[in-house]
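name: query_chain
kind: protein
chains: 1
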Amino acid sequence: MRKNQLKQKLQQGEVVLGLFVNCAYPAFIEICGHAGFDFVVIDLEHGPLHPLVAEDLCRAADCVGLSPIVRVRQNDAPQIQRALDIGSAGVQVPQIESQRDALAVVRGAKYSPLGERGLSFYTRAGVYSSAGTQITDQLNAESLVIVHVEGKRGVDNLAEIVSVPHIDVIFLGPYDLSQSLGIPGQVQDPRVIELMQNAVGTIRNAGKAVGTFADNPETAKQWIDTGVQYIALGVDVGVFLRACQTLVKAVRG
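structure:
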């Protein structure tokens, strides 16, 4: 079984760049790899994708050395298990607000003795049983567990959340954070920035990597300078929209 390159990069302190993916066409995933991204987040929360499609997108990512992460719809053990069983490099779980929430993610993502993930060797993650029956420890070690803290309650409980072992990345969601502060969409508001900067310090002091979403390169660089390692640099449909708008504007003036 292959090593999780994305996890290795994070452990070595590298900054990794990715893209949220809503489109079902595997070629778009291949293009992301050829463009130089480190990972893609296959979005089952806000995107319309089905797990069967997500599995094919994971295959496409593996073809170009790209790490596929699957974002599930909610903190639900069967959804977390399925996201990992299809052979992703890790799972991303939204709306984590407490230590109890974080512990539930780990229980769903890790096999015994670390968690309670259901066991089947007849999955893509288990190489359809060809990897043998002694792979649970390796899968536990290689899988990435990423949790979203994207509300004020989660930030208030951050010290407890970061104490939970086997969580690799705490992802700060700026848009939901802005909404929880009563200023939806105003992600550059000083109140959002201050809340996130304080959270970055808490997470890094706990020895975990920090992730966030950035709409543009300038914002991404600002958060990298603050200590964020895991950057989701937009959404595929938004990138395509802006590219199309640029083309139209260039011709029509």
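note: The chain has a mean pLDDT of 96.
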